[in-house]
Amino acid sequence: MLSGEYTDLTKTLGGKVIKVEQGKSTGINPFELEPDTRENGDKQFLNILDKVAEIRALLATICRNYMGRTLNGTEITEIEVVVNQLYAERRN
Question: What is the percent of the chain where pLDDT is above 70?
Fold first, then answer.
């Protein structure tokens, strides 16, 4: 794969390019919240529900790929409750 091969596409789709280099610390924080802008473009807000859904999907993917199973209903509920609690604690 060429270096930077998907940089333009990633930026066009609103993504962030993360440069990973040997010997340098790099990280991705799936819990990081970034303000969204409403359709009229003048008011920003934090979309907690979408972020909770993203984290649930990420954990479901990890579970499916590394444990060979899907999350059960109890696990899904616990993820949603805990992640919502974490964000509620950070708001206060």
Answer: 88
